[in-house]
C-alpha cells in the first residue's frame, strides 16, 4: 500500500532545496508545498530585472538573500518510519517550540536507514577521488587506517582539480619568503572575509590557516613542482602556479602506493544511518547494482559541486543550467542530495556564478582569456555593453550575461580591447592573458569600423566612442565602471590605440564554490539549527563545502584547490582518531 503525506512549508519556495518535489521513501510519498513567501525575501528581488549589474545588486542577491530553513520549514528525513514520525513535528512546528533532543542527527526518531548486510567496508570511506578525496585518502593511509575511495568515473584524470586553472593557494610558503613577500594568518583572515563579503565563516578559515601547510608539504613530498608566486586579485601575493593535471596524477598514484583502495565507476548515492543518527556507511551503485559500503570510523564526502545538475543550477539562477559545463563530469550534486536527506543546510544559491572568458571554440583552459582585466569592455552580439566589467566573476555578472541575446543557441559576448590592453595581456604570466595557446582566437582589425564589420556587431563603434568620450570628459560611466578590476586596481582608460581586438566569450560553469553544504570548523556537516549531523562521523571536504571558506565571491585564486585539499587532509586525520562505531 502506498501512502501520500503532504508537508506544508511556510516559507519561500527558494528556501527549500527541491520545493514542490516528490520524494519517495519506503511506502510513503512526501509532497512538498510552499505556502508563503516572507516579505523580507520578496523585497530582495526587483520586479523588473535590468540588463545591467552593479556591486550593490550583487550584495543584494549574494549576501543579503542567503536562504535558511527555519523551524517552520522542513527537509524530509530518511526511512519510512523515521520520516513519518517527523510529520507531527512539522505540523506542530508552525508555532514556536523547543528543538527535540536529537535535532543534531538531522532525522526524526525511528529506524534509520541501514542495509541487510555489508558488501565492502573500511575504516574511512571517501566518496569522490578528486583533489580533496585524494588528499584525504593520502592522509588517512599516513595515519595508518584502512581507506576506501568510491570514485564515480573510470579514473581521476578528469576531476575538477585536474581541470582547474593551474594554481593553488597557501599562506606562508617558502616561495613567498624567497620572493620577499610578507604574509600572515591575520592578513589572510582579513582579506578572505572582505573578498568573500563576510559570507564565509571565521572558524573554517582558521582551520584552513592552521593546517594548510600540511598539504603544502604533502605536495612537495609527492613531487609536485611549483613555478613561483603570482598576484591574482588579492592584496597579498600567495597563489602558486603549478600543473593541475600533474597534481592530480601524482596525488592519485601516491595514494594508491600507500595502499588506499579505489572502487572506480562507483557512485555514492545515499548515506546509511542507524536509529541514533550515526552515519555508518554509504549506499553506492556499481555496474547497475547497489552495494552497501560500511565506514567503521567515518564517511568523508568529497563529491565536488553541482555544475552537472541542471535542476540545482536553474534553482540558483534561471537559465544557468543551460550554460556549458566545463567541470569534471562527476559533479552531479549527488553528494549534496545525500547530505540534504539527513537535514543539512544548503546555502549560497543566490551567489552562484559562471566564470567568463572561455572561447566557444575551445574545450580547455587553452581558450581562456580574461581581457577585461587589461582594460577590455564586454559587449553583446549587437555591440552593446551590458555590465560593469570590473565586477569580474560574480552572480550579478552572470545574471547580466544570461539576459543578453544568444548566438547559435548559446549565451555569448565579445571582449573588446585596443593595442595597449593587448600588449599588457601578453606580458601577463598566468592564464588570464594572451598566450601562444589562445592567440589564434583573437579577431583584429586596424579600425573600430572594420572590427565592427568583422564580428557583425552593428553598435560597436557607437558603444566604444561613448565609453571613450565619457572617460575623457570625466563623466560617470554608463555601467558604473571606474576601475579595471575593482577597488585598488588601475582606473579605466579610453580604448583609442589601434589596432583593435575582439575575443569571443561564452560562460562556462567550471565550478560552483560559492554554494554548498554548511560545515563547522571541524569539517562536520551541519543541520538547519547549526548542529553536527551524523554523530561526528560525517565530514566534508572540497567543493561541496568551499562556500564556508570562500564566501560570496571567489577572489583568492587557488584557494578552491588549496582549501578543498587542506580540509581533505584535516578531516581524514580527525576521522582516523575515532573509535569504530560498531566496536
TrEMBL record:
GO molecular function: steroid dehydrogenase activity, acting on the CH-CH group of donors
Gene3D superfamilies, per database record: FAD/NAD(P)-binding domain, Succinate dehydrogenase/fumarate reductase flavoprotein, catalytic domain
Keyword terms, alphabetized: FAD, Flavoprotein, Oxidoreductase
Transmembrane intervals: none
Domain FAD-dependent oxidoreductase 2 FAD-binding as annotated: residue spans: 123-545
InterPro entries for the chain: FAD-dep_OxRdtase_2_FAD-bd, FAD-oxidoreductase_2, FAD/NAD-bd_sf, Succ_DH/fumarate_Rdtase_cat_sf, TAT_signal_bac_arc
Essential cofactor(s): FAD
Name assigned to this protein: FAD-binding protein
Species of provenance: Rubneribacter badeniensis
